[in-house]
Amino acid sequence: MSLLQEINFPRDLEHALKILYQGQSRHHCSNQCNNYIRCIESLSNVQRITELNYLSILKICLYLEQFELDLEMKKYTLLNYAIGKCNSENKIIINMESLNIDPPKLIRPGDTAIFSESTNKTRTNRTIWTKVLIVVKNKITVKLCHGKTSKIEKKRFNISFQSRHWPLRCCHHALTIISECNWHEIIYPQLKTNCTEIEFDIEWINTNIKKNEQQKQAVMKILNNTARPAPYIIFGPPGTGKTATLVEAICQIVRQYPTKNILVCTLSNAAADEITKRLIKSIPTNLIYRMYAPSREWSSVDKEIRPCANFVQDITIFLSKDILLLKKIIISTLLSSIRLIGENFRKNHFSYIIIDEASQAIEPDMLIPLAVTNQAEDEGIGFQPQIVIAGDPYQLGPVIHSKRIEHLLGRSMLERLMNDCDPYKIQKNGKYNPNYITKLIKNYRSHESLLYVSNKLFYNELKFCGGADTQMALNWSQLPNKKFPMIFQEVLGTEQRSESLSVYNTAEVLAVLVYVEILMNTKFKKHAITPKDIGIITPFTRQELNIKHHLAAMNLKDITVGTVETFQGQERNVIILSTVRSIIFKHNNKEHIGFLSNPKRFNVALTRAKALTIIIGNPNILCTNKHWNFLWNYCKEHNGYVSFKQLPLKKNSKVAKLMGNLQTHSCTDRVMQLKGWRYGVFVGGFIGLFGICCYATMIGPMLNPEPYKRIRERAFTDKPS
Question: Which residues face 157 on adjacent strands?
């Protein structure tokens, strides 16, 4: 398709945003501008998106998200940057380390880097435009759009970055198409009273599904289009075989309906690749088209997928419509499916649109593949396919930068349907309506003990069906309870902020490394632990970088370390969770622990492990939150709690030598309790000193008494970084 138009803000809206965000004068503010200001200021009071305000709210949310992203991009501006030696391919590598910020996550390939030559920090001479090619940690590779790098070598420039906002442009385009069609029956569906079903003679591809009533039900209902034109939801809690169910449904559609075509979309390329790899085991590759974006490198495409990928040699291509019509299954990300809109397929070309990772996508993302069916060459109402959306509303939703609209744009279509629309709500019998939604309940991933907390707090009815690999950590030497593969390791360290404002906790870094070293010398029932068995989750980027740095020094680079967002959808035999938090915050006179209070983030972190979970943190702080308090009590009841004094650090270990010069604060006594574990506060805001305190050297477990001053409470809201 042709390039999407740039997003042009309505003039009055742009003026309103500059008034609200940049303090621009209200002088000459039009009536429409004032209306926009009132609208934006009232968004915090809009509880949810309704059928009446659906299009207008989503549109204004997209504008606000773009405006705030543009403001945030300005923090990456480099002043008086010296250009070094450039290579012969007109490429320049920009080192962002001088900004003292975490890796620039907002800068993506395809964005623009603008070089403004300057003799000082303010006077500008000429401007050079470049395109961002690669972003790796703090290094950004750009290519000149015109001219040669030799002309700018050894000169100084101010460098700023502009996002091309491709995802938002796709969303705006989809909204425009949807607004011109009959979207109500799919976006806000009503309950149907009758549905005729066919009994299919099924030969199951995945024989395990034959034994799972919920998975079988989902496949049969999808084949029968029981929800159409409404979406059919597969509610898949962690480890319950959501992807396996989708793959089986696709295979059965191909078998039962040989003439029907399927569009499969996911939020991420990783999920699209996983579905593709499973499908090509049962379906000829010439019937499958894995459509990548033009930016995809041939070398990064899995060898199994290459026969059905849109590459000629190592160059991405886009198939002609005649060839596309021969493909039974087209698989792409939600954003890449925008390329199909201009093909003008007949309105019934796709009999099924199947969307995975639906709980992580913003609602306008979900509209992109739906818009494909509405750009049909025949007249009439579109939305003929049976739409299937799969996800888990209790795991992390979309990432939104604008806090003002997070409660609106950050709520996925799947979550909205399940909470707001009658067909998807739990019925009087306590069950979901199987014609509209199936909840998968058999968990194959984790040991029962590891999912108990999430099941009690969120899912209620999971059944544990894991194999022998979920039992491998039982009887491990470090388990206080040999039948309980979970440890809550108390660490009473100090939370610190880096110059980039991201948070780290040196004491917890030590504890992580202690357990990693022990694990790397461990066998679980003859299974030797390797780096790929271990995942380390921490909420903060700076803690992630610190842990990675020390693991590299231990030659353990293959251990994956990342935030909760990184691990969503992944699993490991062993998960170590470093919580970092050692400060309680206050907001509206309520205590909280920042974004660790988010129940979805808590749930994702706890449901990644198959055989062993090690939680590292300060219970005095964490237990001010009801979910963390439930977890801590659960570990305590099952003798899974280990005090800081009992941290298994051996004097002559590699970790002890590596960390020998570091010190960390700890507290040997509990602080006073208030509704569980809470810090006490004196009247007037003065902070007391509690207990006898000490510090621990990293070369041994000997503790030396020293006063420990309680970290004062700070009344600001931190945000993930």
Answer: 81, 117
349 to 177, 223, 281, 465: CA distances (angstroms): 18, 17, 25, 39
* Percent of the chain surpassing pLDDT 70: 87
Query: Could you give the 3-state DSSP secondary structure of residue 504?
Result: strand
Per-residue pLDDT, averaged over 268-296, amounts to: 95
pLDDT at 677: 34
* Contact assessment for residue 696 and residue 645, using Cβ atoms and an 8 Å cutoff: no
Residues in the chain: 721
| pLDDT in the model for residue 594 | 87
Split at pLDDT 50, 70, 90, the class of 670 is very low
Residue 536 token pair: 């380390």
- Nearest-angstrom CA–CA distance, 607 and 601: 10
Q: How high does pLDDT run on average in the chain? A: 86
How many C-beta atoms lie closer than 10 Å to residue 29's C-beta?
16
What percentage of the chain exceeds 90 in pLDDT?
A: 65
Residues 233-255 have pLDDT tens digits of 999 999 999 999 999 999 999 99
The DSSP result for 575-630, as a single string, is EEEE------EEETTEEE-GGGG-HHHHHHHHTSEEEEEEEEE-HHHHTTSHHHHH
Residue 563 near residue 541 (C-beta atoms within 8 A): yes
Lookup: tokens for 597 = 């209070």
Q: What's the pTM value of the predicted model, to 2 decimals? A: 0.87
Cα of 261 vs its chain's centroid, Å: 30
> Which residue is it, tokens 């070309």?
349
How far apart CA 236 and CA 164 sit, in angstroms, is: 34
Q: Please, what are the domains in the chain? A: 11-73 (no CATH), 76-164 (2.40.30), 167-191+205-268+316-440 (3.40.50.300), 466-665 (3.40.50.300)
Q: Which helix (H) or strand (E) covers residue 37, if one does?
A: helix 31-42
Q: Are 386 and 228 spatial neighbours (Cβ–Cβ below 8 Å)? A: yes
- The neighbour count for residue 156, using CB atoms within 10 Å, is 16
pLDDT of 490 strictly over 60? yes
Instruction: At 245, list the tokens.
Output: 């169910």
Q: How many CB atoms lie within 10 A of CB 552?
A: 11
Query: Do 352 and 388 form a contact (C-beta atoms < 8 A)?
Result: yes
For residue 517, what are the contacts with CB-CB under 8 A and spacing of at least 6?
554, 653, 654, 655
